[in-house]
Amino acid sequence: MLVSTIVLMIAAVLSSIISSFFPHFSINYISIFIGLIIGLVPFFNGRVAPFHTEVFMYIVAPLIYFEGQSTRINLIGKRLRQILETAVLLVIVGTVFAGFSVSLLGIPLALAFLMGALSTPTDATATESVSEGLIVPERQENLLKMESLFNDASGIILVTAMALWVKNGQFNYQQTLFDFLRSAGGGIIIGIVAALVMISFRQFLGRINHSAYNAQILLFVSTPFFIYFVAEELKVSGIIAVVCAGLMQNSESVRSRFITPRQFHNGLVLLRLLREVLNNTVFVILGVLVVRIIRDDLISGNTNSQWIVIGILLYLANLLVRYLYGLLSKMGNKGSIIFALGGVHGAVTLALVYMIIDNVSSAQFDMIVLAEMLVIILSMVVPSIVFRFILDHDMSSKEAGKQIQRLRQEMVKEGLAAVEKIYLPEKIRESVVYDLRDQKSANSFADFWHQWAKASRYPEFNEQERELEQRALLWAFRAERQYLDMVSQKENRRDYLFELYNEILLAESILLDTENEY
């Protein structure tokens, strides 16, 4: 298991590295491609263990928790009716319509409804990946986000009910309704209670001990795993529990940013890192599974391609239901298309597939996995293409990169000019100029090794020299910030200005923390 985890983590990191060179491609596609390579190369494939439902859900739980944490809880009250419509009504209608559509292919009705239920949960992280660089209308963006947070639980209940229908040959309507209310209601209670306890403990600890921020961050990271485990042990929805806890965590973050600013900043950095790594891991797994299942089918002689038709039909059925809901909700034709295509599938769909492995035959399971994987891929590819034509384009990452580079060059130029006006011993000036030029990557590979050799060969600056170097750099950073302040008054775009301003503040923080204690 350890080797398998290491391989998947390396693959996830590699996806991020490659994605940075190809910003126009969604990182999810790159992760799937790397997963396909791992599955095709026996050396790597043999080092990735078989996958289980529990593994998937413990990847999905923190993803949903972090998604909930980035959502303001006051939006829930404002959009409660729409949340219930999309998270419950839309899931049920989508399941029924997709189920009947698939049954027309000769698939048993119970199995068809099971596949329909599996194709209903959506993924906010995946939606963001297909709309990157584009402006999604606020109404659709908020609704898609709310839907993806809450339709996972209703999807899980329906999948469980349909799986029992397939296994037992009958569908118990009353039991399904009772299970839904018990699971969702219990999940809400557990999530709220656990969040209140964790928030109270963190706030108390933060106020009596400011030096415990490392423990605070570890507590924050472990929270979704703990809450999901407790909820599942109590036989209620762990997904709903972590969603509710994440929403409550958002309000805590808003009102306690400055108790320990460094902890808050490090928490945000860690949150983004974990979201990216976990999301990449899910899609790497998807690529590996595609290769493994197709290879097993070829070896066993089961080359039935019906899953392709089923996958396309499931996707189109859900697309139509979502489009009609948009029209009924008065979103207009374009808004309805955006809402329909924005229902992108991802981690939860894949996790749900592995929940039903004991309820279906081996051949049925392989067909379901491939069909649902096709739904996931279509739900990413189609909007990636269509959105480019129907949505307004935001500043592309490439264009933003050019603007950042332009401002960085001018910013460092101001810093160097400020240093030129003050007296410094030559060796200190050389060190300061090198550090400033490093801000814009102007130092060559040879320059780095030259400075590395000097740092390794000669003693460090004495206390007086270190103070001179620190003051010179702070003076330069001040000039750089003043330049960005001036530019911010003229340019409408503030996000890339904030990125540069943040870099300078972090550089100052590192400079002032001479012992690297904080």
From TrEMBL:
Listed InterPro entries: Cation/H_exchanger_CPA1, Cation/H_exchanger_TM
Coiled-coil features, chain-numbered ranges: none
Membrane topology: Multi-pass membrane protein
Domain Cation/H+ exchanger transmembrane: 15-391
Subcellular localization: Cell membrane
Transmembrane segments: 6-22, 29-49, 87-114, 149-168, 180-201, 277-294, 306-325, 337-357, 369-391
The UniProt record lists the keyword Mitochondrion: no
This protein's name: Cation:proton antiporter
Species whose genome carries this gene: Limosilactobacillus balticus
